[in-house]
Write a structure and sequence with these properties.
mainly beta; Tachylectin-2, Chain A; 4-stranded antiparallel β-sheet
Length: 332
């Protein structure tokens, strides 16, 4: 990804100098989905199945390190953390969870879809993740915490939410500060939404049970909730769908496509939806993975702006598109 300075030929020298010296977050940047993205040190970004949290003016991107992995050799290595102030230039900060000698984080284990939220009461960043083995016989959710967003996380163990198996997960914090876990239980229990305890470390209650989808992502616009999900086709992509409601516990609509039929969500699987809220508006950015089963570590990222209007969500393809993280606006 690269920074775009617009209309330099029409600006005076002083204006060009002033624009060039603005902080990184103040200029528009271009997103090029499906291309090979590298961090500021020139290394491939390893943040698959990831999620984001914004702290101050900085975004932090967590995900799976799949370096050298394939569908037949997908085991836990690290959970990296990257930082950016403009959503285009990403600095590798640290591996916040690393492989251990044994246990959930040990050899021949699977850690997927790490998501991080902040608990203002405990002053802890809380990470949830899918914990498993390659044969999917563990099927638990794991929890880790850290006093700093991109610091070393302390692993607190794993469990089955209310006794249900757990595969793909995501987290959501509502406007009132309540936090929720979406957890895929497959045919045993479909896609389940749980409210978390006040410290975000445990399940407090079951909120609702949605249809049988994996790879969930959830966001809220003007009092309405939206959940995106993928059908279960392994590493192969499919036409992802969405549902919407004004209540987390009831009234969820029938699932519908949000990308053109047959596009297989532009050959990607839903990972996360990032609200980019600025001074002039908000962009709801779809984040997906375009999995390459034979080389998971080289799977490109698909980031595109969602169009959200009432009960309707749609996604169009843009080989290149521009976003301003300060204003929250985008254009092709």
């Amino acid at each position: 990804m690269r920074r775009t300075l617009i209309g330099l030929a029409t600006l005076g020298v002083a204006a060009v100098v002033a624009l060039a010296t603005l902080p990184a977050s103040a200029a528009e940047v271009t997103i090029s989905p499906g291309t090979a993205w590298k961090d500021t040190a020139g290394r491939p970004i390893q943040a698959h199945g990831g999620g984001m949290i914004k702290v101050g003016a900085t975004w932090y991107w967590f995900g799976e390190d799949k370096t050298g992995e394939s569908q037949d050799n997908a085991v836990f290595r690290n959970v990296p953390c990257y930082s950016s102030t403009d959503l285009a230039h990403w600095k590798f900060v640290a591996n916040v969870l690393t492989r251990q000698k044994s246990g959930d984080l040990g050899p021949n284990r699977v850690i997927e879809r790490p998501k991080v939220i902040f608990n203002p009461a405990t002053k802890q960043y809380v990470m949830y993740m899918h914990v498993d083995d390659p044969g999917h016989t563990v099927t638990k959710v794991g929890v880790a915490t850290s006093p700093t967003v991109c610091g070393s996380y302390t692993y607190r163990g794993s469990f089955k939410p209310q006794g249900n198996i757990s595969l793909d997960i995501t987290l959501f914090v509502d406007d009132d500060g309540a936090a929720y876990l979406l957890s895929e239980a497959r045919a045993a229990g479909k896609l389940r939404m749980y409210r978390l305890s006040a410290d975000f470390l445990r399940i407090a209650s079951l909120v609702t049970v949605l249809d049988d989808f994996e790879a969930p992502a959830i966001f809220k616009v003007a009092g309405r909730y939206y959940v995106l999900g993928s059908h279960r086709t392994g590493w192969r992509t499919n036409d992802n769908e969405y549902t919407t409601s004004t209540s987390l516990s009831k009234g969820w609509a029938a699932w519908k496509l949000f990308a053109p039929k047959g596009s297989k969500t532009f050959n990607s699987q839903t990972t996360f939806v990032l609200p980019v809220v600025g001074s002039k508006g908000a962009t709801y950015m779809f984040m997906g993975d375009r999995w390459i089963p034979s080389s998971l570590g080289t799977s490109p990222y698909i980031w595109l702006p969602l169009t959200v209007q009432g009960t309707s969500v749609s996604l169009a393809w843009h080989a290149h598109w521009t976003i301003d993280a300060v204003t929250g606006t985008w254009h092709p």
